[in-house]
Amino acid sequence: MASVFSHYEALLAPIYSWMAGGIDQALSLGADDVSVFLDAPGYAVDLGAGFGMHTIPLARSGYQVLAIDSSAHLLEELRQHSVGLPVRTIEGDLRLFASYVSAPADLILCMGDTLTHLQNMAEIEQLLRAVAASLRPGGRFVATFRDYQQLPVADQRFIPVRSDSQRIHTCFLEAMPEHVVVHDIIHEHGRNGWSMKVSSYEKLRVSATALCRIGEAAGLRCRTMPGPRGMLMFQACA
C-alpha cells in the first residue's frame, strides 16, 4: 500500500485538477467555499493547498496566502495560475506548517478531505494545538472532511469520480477499524488503447465529536456542520 505522498505523486497529482472538473470549475467551487470568509481579508494559511482551489480565490479577494503542500507537481500548477497574486508556496509537510508561518493567521484552511490524510488521532491533536498557537485572537480554522464512520456497503463501495472519452476514474472503499483504504483505479486511453493504473492508500476515520473534543482541549471554540460536496465542515475560533 502506498503512502499518501507516493499515492498522489504517482497517480493523482497529474490529474487532480481534471478530477475537480478542470481548473475553471475548481476555482469557481473554491470561491463559493471561501465566500463567507472574504469580509475582512488578512493573512491566511492553506494546508494541503494543491493546485490552488482555495488559495487563488482567497488571494484574489485580498488575502496574503501561505500555501503548503507536499506535491511539487500541484504547487507548480498553483504558481502558474496565481501569477501576480499575493501567494507564497511551500513544498512541505502540513503537520509542520507552524514553522513556515510568518505572523499570527487570520484564517487557516484545511479543505477537501485533507484532514483524513493524517495517520492517527495523535497527529490531529498535534495539528490542532499548532493551529491554536498560530491563530490571532478571533482567528478561524476551517476544515472539511468526509465522514467515514458510516461507510457504504456492497456495490456502493465503488464510487465513480469522473470520466470522459479519454479517462475514467473510479475509487473503491475498504473498511478497517481506524482507517478506510481507498483504492483509486484510473483507466486512460492512449495510442495503444486503454491502460489501467491502480494505487491504494489509507484515510483516517475521523468523527465530528472527536474533532470538537480535541479542538476544545487545544483552547478553540468548535462546531461542525454540513459542508460542500457531501463533506462535513469543522470551524474553530481562537
Core attributes:
Rossmann fold, alpha/beta, 2 domains, N-terminal domain of TfIIb, four-stranded antiparallel β-sheet, 238 residues, globular, seven-stranded mixed β-sheet
Question: Can you describe this structure?
Answer:
The protein has 238 residues and is of the alpha/beta class. The chain has 2 domains: 4-147 and 206-237, Rossmann fold; 154-203, N-terminal domain of TfIIb. Helix content is 27%, strand content 35%. The chain is built from 7 helices and 11 strands. It has helices spanning 4-12, 16-19, 23-34, 55-60, 72-81, 121-134, 208-217; strands at residues 43-47, 64-69, 87-91, 105-110, 135-145, 158-163, 167-175, 179-190, 193-204, 221-226, 232-237. It has a 7-stranded mixed β-sheet with strand order 3-2-1-4-5-11-10, with helices on both faces. A 4-stranded antiparallel β-sheet has the order 6-7-8-9, covered by helices on one side. The longest helix is centred in the middle third of the chain and has 14 residues, at 121-134. The termini are far apart. The mean pLDDT is 96.
Low-confidence parts, pLDDT < 50 over ≥5 residues? none
Q: What's the shape? A: globular
Please give the CATH architecture of the largest domain.
3-Layer(aba) Sandwich
Order of helices and strands: HHHEHEHEEHEEEEEHEE
Termini separation comes to 38 Å
Beta-sheet strand percentage? 35-45%
Number of helices: 7
Total domain modules: 2
The average pLDDT is: 96
| Total DSSP E strands | 11
| CATH class group of the largest domain | Alpha Beta
Cα Rg: 18 Å
The biggest sheet amounts to: 7 strands, mixed
CATH superfamily of the largest domain: Vaccinia Virus protein VP39
**Structural class computed from helices and strand pairing:** alpha/beta
Helical fraction equals 25-40%
Q: How do the strands of the widest beta sheet line up side by side? A: 3-2-1-4-5-11-10
CATH topology of the largest domain: Rossmann fold
